[in-house]
Amino acid sequence: MGIAFENQLAAPQLPSRPAYGDNQTGTHLPERAGSLNGVIVPEQPGKNAIEVRGVRKVFGTGENQVAALDTVSVSIRENEFFTLLGPSGCGKTTLLRLIAGFDFPTAGEILLHGQDIAPLPPFKRPVNTVFQSYALFPHMTVAQNIGFGLEMLGKARAEIEARVAQMLKLVKMEALKARRTSEISGGQQQRVALARALAPQPKVLLLDEPLSALDYKLRKEMQIELKRLQHETGITFIFVTHDQEEALTMSDRIAVMSAGKILQVGTPRDIYDRPAERFVADFIGETNFLPGTVVSKQAGVATVKFASSATISAGYPEGFDPTGEVTLVVRPEHADLVPDPAKGTIAGTLANIVYFGTDTHYHVKLDGGGENFIVRHQNSRSSPVTYATGAKVGIQFEEDAARVLKD
Amino acid sequence: MTTAALSSVPLSKAALFEAQAVKISARRNRLLSLPALLIIGIFGVLPLIIICVYSFLVAAPYGGVQWQFSTDAYLNFLFQRDIFDDTLQFTPDFLIIYLRSFLFAVVTTVICLLLGFPTAYFMATRPPAQRNWWVLLITIPFWSNLLVRTLAIMFIIRDEGLINNALIGLGVIDKPITMLYTNFAIQLGLLYAFLPFMVLPLYSSLEKLDFRLIEAAYDLYATRRQVLWRVIIPLSKPGIIAGCLLVFIPALGAYVTPLILGGGIHLMIGDLIAQQFGSGRNWPLGCAQALILMTAVLVALYFYVRNTSGKVQHG
Q: Which of these CATH numbers, 1.10.1740.10, 3.40.50.300, 3.40.640.10, 2.40.50.140, describes A6-126+202-273?
């Protein structure tokens, strides 16, 4: 077996539970190809590393029952940087803990390369975790922390030392290997936590908001670092975050979660440009919501009339049939200001101008009332028109800027 | 030049002020520590000096001391002067009592640790609201006097006691098992008396344990046993050290328990020393025995702490 379960199979604990790698289903797991020296070639290209099937997790009993996960199904591919994104309490950490084995699902299956690992304890899963609090062992040095997993797997001393050295180099911590974990900075602890989780060469690496404790600049650095590590090791990363920007910049695919359900799975571009639900549009990036009435629809495009009797054509997700009163979503950067109110699709008064350095946000109080509409302009040296607060302006939309979404 | 001279003025003023502040706070700290130092001096150091002086004097016939320098008390610890030819003969009686006491104390400490660790772990893993109740339960024995509790044990284990009566009543045995006035009784009494002193420091150190570290260890392929030995025990070492010291030292000098449950037949150091001041009427010998005990404990402590704290540091 690739991840050396030899000694785990002999472990006396939980003898009734099958160890990962027990050949029950008849599917043989191939040897792990390659090593950390080079990019690891996926064993089964395009196959799913993790498959979550109809998983429910209920905490508490009787009246106090809370479903942290409500029948969730998702497939995570090999070598993918997959992000679980959602507000706190949406169930993303619960899902991660179920994959790690710290909790067991109330119902459903979790497959790792086709084998159900849901009933296995954490020490029998070839899955490692980078904890939000890092959870480094304070009574060990940096090197001892990194070598811990390998030591528990019963590897030879020479092999452990070699791998620890490799890992130290990978996360650029060679100089501090003899330090205690209390004697290094937060960013360095983060690197050690990563190296410790990567050292046993897990099939899947789970990351539970690992960057949330770092300051802005360090976080940016670590985002790039994580992408590099994922690329170099070829290990499937499952990353949990509530930071939508982090999710967009780092992920191959994102699953947006809310209230124990997965609302949408897709590439960052899919999620941002074609959100499936109002919650997704609202949670990721800034969005304007406009009320309107569907006049007609044809082949995924609806014609929507505003109160000002102007109309606009807007796309809508598959499997959704918009009728009557609907809400349109428009990204602030997909709209533009025009000085003449009559030339815009909708019109209003400039209520506020907020300068952000890279761009400027114009808050427009719409003539029809409701929430302020925000238009984002990228700042350049030659911004053609300058606007003043209180000016009457029109708002134009780019093509395909508006979408009709389920509430 | 001028700017440097100008800027040096406020700088040196600030430095002066700082030095003054340091001086004042140092003086205040000394003042604050005065009550503690007084108590330690009067009730700790002074009696120790008296004991030390007395141990080098000669015993008066009816108790007390005669002011005459002698090292007899220390010689008498290991040797006995022959009445006829005045030669010194090696008599290990006292030494045996000391070794017995050490053995009792070690066994007490080890068993207390084995019983106390799971107990403390159980308490520390309860929901926070429940934990204080468990601590309260552990401290219940402290609500009554040790003497009373030891007498209660006597009533439970004596020949006509609770255990023997119950066993005879059930027909398990037909003759009572003698438990009182045996080594077993002393050991049982010591365990009972000192178990809370093990549980409480262990609990306080396990309660502070970050249980996410245990999850991290499981995640890194450690089995339950490996988690215990590689993570939980090393991290609760301060509690283990404190608990062992709190049990071992008082157990070594235990007086009431061996006196009552050992029936004066099976002596421990505490009873031996008490005898010298009572029926033995040899105060210098009692003082010497007390000092020898103290020295032995200090030496043992030194090595114990040095070894265990070293292990904590080097993982």
A: 3.40.50.300
